[in-house]
Amino acid sequence: MPSTARRTHYWVTFAVLAVSVASYTLMQSLTIPVLSELETEFNTDQNTVTWLLTGYLLSASIFTPIMGRLGDAYGKQRLLVISLAALAIGSLAAALAPTIGLLIAARVLQGVGGGVLPLAFGIIRDEFPREKIGGAVSIVSSLLAVGFGAGIVIAGPLSSALSYHWLFWLPFIVTAVAAVVAAVLVPESPVRTPGRIAIVPAILLSSWLVALLLSLSQAPQWGWGDAKTIGLLIAAAVLAVAWVRVELVVDVPLIDMKMMRLPGVWTTNLVALLLGVGMYASFGFIPQFNQTPSSAGYGFGSTITESGMILLPSAIMSFLTGLVAAPIARRIGPKTVVVFGSVLAAVGMFMMAAFHAEPWQVAVSNAITGTGIGLAFACLAGLIVAAVTPEQTGVASGMNANIRTIGGSIGTAVMASIVTAHFLPSGFPKEVGYTAGFVVLGVALLAAAAAGLAIPSMSEKAIEDKLEQERIDRELAVMSA
Predict the structure, then answer these.
(1) Which of UniProt's keywords are assigned here (predicted)?
(2) Spatial separation of the C-alpha atoms in residues 478 and 467, rounded to whole Å
(3) Rounded to an integer, what distance in angstroms lies between the CA atom of residue 169 and that of residue 255?
(4) Which of 216, 97, 95, 101 is nearest to 167 (CA)?
């Protein structure tokens, strides 16, 4: 390992990475509970205000794998600082935005911060002792679920006590400090992937992601049979095929297709896709269910704050499972943890479909789902890291996070179509729409468990030994150079 004189203790590095990932994941959901408030504040319509989510989602989906690949090539610490700076500047711009258009643009800039996810996993792999990598990756991975849930929980109290502006001021302060600390304390990665970044694959990747996610996010409003929806889906398919073909022939691919075909990679990505379907859609629609007036025959008429508190057990359990997932994986294997977690999450979702007459029932079912998703997420990143070479950690982790986001878009679009299929005279969706939607999400989580069975078996000790050998090889290479 190069010059150890300036290398920060790995727990300091971990603290910076945890804050960075938590800040990014919070920004995914902080605006969801206050969309109606922002609609009124900016005197706009629902279709326009939803672009605060769509714009962020599109940007993050594009930049997460690209920033991971750039980190592999030019230095993970350098790109981490850039990602945090983009998140901080975007948050500042959002806090000061005088119009809805500028607020949407600020959210697009925030999406560049998605690079913190793959970069954090890569830095952990490079800097941590082998016996500490599994636990660190598990905790950071669990923050993906925790942060998303926590954003929904704290948005209401923060907006009510201060104003919606603090949904952006707070992330600005935290990420700006994190960027400075990362620049000073986080050591640069000794692992690089040589070669220039191919521009055409990056353009094609961005294009098919935009076409796919735009069609999925707008399909509930446009209709699945609308010409725009169908046209974008066809364009996404054509561009995706073109992207794969180009990646196969360029000298230095943006995403190595041979890597994507590895059994440990494609199976883990499939699980991530299906878990994304269940997690993002449930967090997006359960608050709406809670806030529906009881006069509709369901719901509790909850305020934004009350609705968030009902989801608090899910966020807590996701975090706690992140702390214990690594020790459990050492005993029974990470694959088993992923399968068990997915099944447990499905059980919670089916409970939500069957029992939702009281707030405590919703809280319990969500706590079970959060426990399962927390366990599964905590092991997915470690499986990806172990399946690829050190030089591919950033891009492989970025694609895994990106595929999870795509799953969230699919789940949200399908859930929206089911929930809004039938309305009551009062204008609220019928209860049967929510019930059917939660059943569909439960089936997706069960499918994630089935896909998890295809993940190649590998004990946690075998993963640690593989990572330790790679660290020794890197040190020998540096010494010989």
Answers:
(1) Membrane, Transmembrane, Transmembrane helix, Transport
(2) 17
(3) 35
(4) 95
Taking each helix axis from N to C end, the angle separating 359-387 and 393-419, rounded to the nearest 10 degrees, works out to: 150
Residue of 135, 117, 45, 44 lying closest to 76 (CA atoms): 117
- Two structure tokens written together for 154: 């704290």
Quote the pLDDT of residue 169: 92
Does this model's pTM top 0.85? My answer is: no
Tokens matching residue 62? 């594009």
Contact in structure between 405 and 60 (CB atoms under 8 Å): yes
Please answer whether residues 267 and 455 qualify as being in contact, where contact means their C-beta atoms are separated by less than 8 angstroms.
yes
Question: What angle, rounded to 10 degrees, do the helices at 334-354 and 304-332 form?
Answer: 150
Where do we find the tokens 């309305």?
Answer: 423
Measuring CA to CA, which residue among 449, 122, 395 is closest to residue 277? Answer: 449
- Can you tell me whether residue 267 is helix, strand or coil? helix
Amino acid identity of 308? Answer: G
Contact partners, residue 36, CB within 8 Å, separation at least 6: none
Give the tokens for residue 64. Answer: 């997460």
Domain at 10-197+252-480, CATH from 1.20.1250.20, 3.40.30.10, 3.20.20.100, 3.30.230.10:
1.20.1250.20
From the centroid of its chain, how far is CA 357?
A: 30
In whole angstroms, what is the distance from residue 258 CA to residue 104 CA? Answer: 37
- How far is C-alpha 68 from the geometric centre of its chain's CA atoms? 14
Q: What is the pLDDT of residue 177?
A: 92
Reduced to 3 states (helix: H, G, I; strand: E, B; else coil), residue 429 is strand
pLDDT value of residue 473: 56
What's the CA gap between 35 and 216, in Å, rounded? 19
Structural contact between residues 412 and 280, judged by C-beta atoms closer than 8 angstroms = yes
Q: Can you tell me the distance from the alpha carbon of 220 to that of 433, in angstroms, rounded to the nearest whole number?
A: 14
Phi, psi of 262 (to 5 degrees): -60, 135
* Burial profile 278-287: b = 16 or more Cβ within 10 angstroms, e = fewer: bbbbbbbbbb
How many other CB atoms are found less than 10 A from the CB of residue 78? 17
Rounded CA gap, 111 and 107, in Å? 6
Classify 199 as helix, strand or coil: helix
DSSP code, position 31: T
Backbone angles phi, psi at 98, to 5 degrees: -90, -15
**Domain boundaries of the chain, sorted by first residue:** 10-197+252-480, 198-251
Counted residue by residue, the chain has a size of: 481
Distance CA 170, CA 91 (A): 8
* Spans of the chain below 50 pLDDT: 1-5, 478
For residue 423, give the 3-state DSSP assignment. strand
